[in-house]
Amino acid sequence: MNSPLFHFAVYPSQLDAFKTKAELLSTSISDECSIKKLSAFKRNDYLAMALGYKGHPDLVESAKFRVESDQYIPLIIFSNESLRQSIAEVFADKVAGISVKQISIICQKLEKKKTGMLVINDLQISLGSHRLMNTKPS
Fold this sequence. Notes:
Blueprint: H1 15-33, H2 40-50, H3 56-64, H4 81-94, H5 100-114, E1 117-120, E2 123-126
Antiparallel strand pairs: 1-2
Helix pairs in contact: 1-2, 1-5, 2-3, 2-4, 4-5
């Protein structure tokens, strides 16, 4: 298993999205591979390891040091091929009965579902990724 040589930066504003993505990944693995859904602890830890951290607590602690540089951008991890490979390797290593290829395919499906991309004959068309802004006066 090849771990990333660096930590993929996760910011405080992205911590909830991180947990959501870990849950989506775990649910997809469970559904597609007919295995029991991973506990929140395991799925968060495994995904954090795939992003180059010792575990989820290390990711959360590292995020605390990125408060000032946090730009409140969406957390996008499944569209990065090297991250997808790392995720596939970590989960295949940690969860019995699943392969790197299965996890990689699941990550690709999640990427297509969650990035606002429409795939037509391998042509990706962006449907828009505008940030919503608070329009209420302060």
